[in-house]
Automatic annotation (TrEMBL):
Pfam family, one: SH3_YKFC_2nd
Keyword Transit peptide: no
Signal peptide: 1-25
Organism annotation: Halobacillus naozhouensis
UniProt keyword list: Hydrolase, Protease, Signal, Thiol protease
Every NlpC/P60 domain range: 210-335
Protein name per Swiss-Prot or TrEMBL: C40 family peptidase
Similarity comment: Belongs to the peptidase C40 family.
Amino acid sequence: MKKWSMFVLAVILVSCLSAPVSLQAEEDLEDKTAYVDVSVATLWSEPDITRPVDEPSVGNPVDMWKWTESMTLDQKLWLVGNLQTQALYGQEVTILEERGDWVKVAVHGQPTPKNELGYPAWMPKVQLADENYFAALKESKSFALVTDTTAWLYDDKQHQGKFKEISFNTKLPVVAQVGDMALVATPSDGMKWISSEAISVYDSRQDIPDPTGQDLVETGKQFLGLPYLWAGASGFGFDCSGFTHTLYKANGITIPRDSSVQATHGTPVAKEDLQKGDLLFFAYNEGEGSVHHVGMYIGDGQMIHSPNSSSTVEIIDVFESDYYSSEFSGARRYID
């Protein structure tokens, strides 16, 4: 009865809190906090440069599988330089600039020297919500962390109506837990149900257990075979640094978003001292130039990584590869 009382109170709370602030009010747009309102928001280098093949990724809702699986290799390669990063459902952003139907945002929780607020790039305005009730619940409630590669939100507890497929590492406020289901808040569509088997629930980010190297390895192995996506940072596709950033983030540790910056933080590690979970970096000019790739060491001379647009997440014998061995530039450790 107590759990259902919480549910009723939550419904009343949602009904009573003020209506969302419109993102169409251009004079008030800049420096506003908003929340991603699609399963995965893809962020672009410039506004309004998308192609017809990108349509599934720029509306609300999005269809990430349709987008990624419909592109040819050449179409995927075109994304290099035109995409910057991705943000997940319910993730907080700060709006920096507006241009027509597009906004430039800083994605919170993705550290970068480009902007102290978070990773900056452009996204369609329609993919954002600014609702008081969701913001309030994010501040006051425990949260569900999606631990499956992707998971479905449902309109009902009986799984009869699928609402939205969301990504690994998505975090949503928990309103109630009933049996094998959890009721979570969404940015603009009230409350939805998710299987308890697909999530972990924490009272705060500090409650996420400190991971071991093996924990990170097991997290990464879930994604073996997942196709690479430039700028990808979700269970629908990763780039190399989006992969390592997300593995750590889902285990409670925030590291920089890009490989070149990941390579300058953490603790330097000698090749002979590598441990599971250490990040391995690769640079041009036989390891002496700028960093262009990152993977995670999993022990026994092996690395798991998301290599390039023609490949999938894979495990390789890293130092037996002429290419990776010759471009190895160092390693960093982000866990004790």
